[in-house]
């Protein structure tokens, strides 16, 4: 019986749309037999001549002696594009087919001095794309501050990046080859010594396999060879989910404050897809016939189903707000790519029924377990929210909704989620080296200085993405050393987004209620309950000081009753910062980096939020690209009035201790 069926509104809408699409497809089939097919695209160019029309040039790029010169070498901040004049089919919506493609090209980058940048890129982008404004330098002629990691992007690129930009490039490896998806940050990368190969010609092969969804790149040099470096790279990606059906293909090269010469000498390209295009004189008449039939029938069907949906929604209108929120979240996530929904049975099996032997840690809202998914052949960390924790469930919903939208190499990846009845579970990628606090204050192996400094830059990069580079500003609200996770190579992965808040980039401090962990909370946040980028920066500053000193911000393990910020500020005033360095380091540290790290930590933890830097300003100083700030010799006092009402009006969520793998 129809009345006994439990049909969700989203399912009903999908059913209606699917029926209408089926009807349209059936009516269009007779006309498809008249459509000619465009053959797949293949070309080979061994010489680039100025009178040829098969290459389009933008910016500084131009043909020169049979090759393409991309940049005016005597000028800074330049961009050049060279693209193929015809559009390229990547996939076909009529057949659902995706193309294989292969491209080969030869290029060289000649470095003129010890300072050089920024690199050459092969890219696929929407037809009609233009050079973005302010895209020189590290943006490689393809992005700018607005588009560097935007969800609106539709671009795939392989970059030969000669300059390390700490805001988005892999930390500590210098120049690199990377494969990028919709972002200036590389999804996969490997070290590549650009200066070693200067002036030599590189032969590059890029292949995409539509069956395995594998994009691979390999390169070799005609004269020089470095056996210690990788010379290939691959990345799993479904181009149908990233690119439009038709794209432009080509190259971009850019310089910034430093310059280098980029030259393309040879290019060939081949794809396998044939696409139907209607060029017959009856096209307009065919369309009118189809529309005249489909539209009335479609409207009738859609109207009937929408009426049914409205009835069903009224029937389910009495659901609780929490159930409604979870159902909405399920619908949103299951329609998109990214985290997947797991059954409770899957996760119980993965963790040996959540056994104590698998437990990694326990916090205020639940426990974290180590698990293994046989079908994915991957280790996971499983966070199980306590069944009686109302606040934990609220944070569960927040975390799934926020982190499932974020993509950055320094953020923990959410693998999936589960809420069956009263069980609320989050599934993350497993971090073999645990949390930062376990190395600084616990029994895990102590960290070398170079690893600590790299961790600081990685955490800064994550915060820059959250505050400035994503489409909305994300205020984390709980940055602390126990939420800084470390992968097998000690790369930073910032986690625990249960307290995060989304705000517009132009929006000021937001009254959210007090949340976070004592010792990391900015004074004005404690007073007013207003979360902001500045309060996140304060927490970041405290973590920097913990990294340098190996001492907790507050609580057990502190060598005095004085707070960490106050103690280090006192040493700064007397010129004795070096006395605060972690004893476990001995003399094995870079004194200039130590000074920079601690002074930036104090700057970020300044009691007056108006005197704190943005995270971008902090990064420039950490990378020794900007001078150290001049801070007061004595620690200032906050310049605001305490407002008890603003705190008591909101529900607090404050943690007093750190746990391995988060709260």
From TrEMBL:
One of its GO terms (biological process) is defense response to oomycetes. ATP binds at residue 383. It is a single-pass type I membrane protein. GO terms for cellular component: plasma membrane. GO terms for molecular function: ATP binding; carbohydrate binding; protein serine/threonine kinase activity. CDD domains: lectin_legume_LecRK_Arcelin_ConA, STKc_IRAK. Interacts with ABCG40. This is Protein kinase domain-containing protein. It comes from Gossypium tomentosum (Hawaiian cotton).
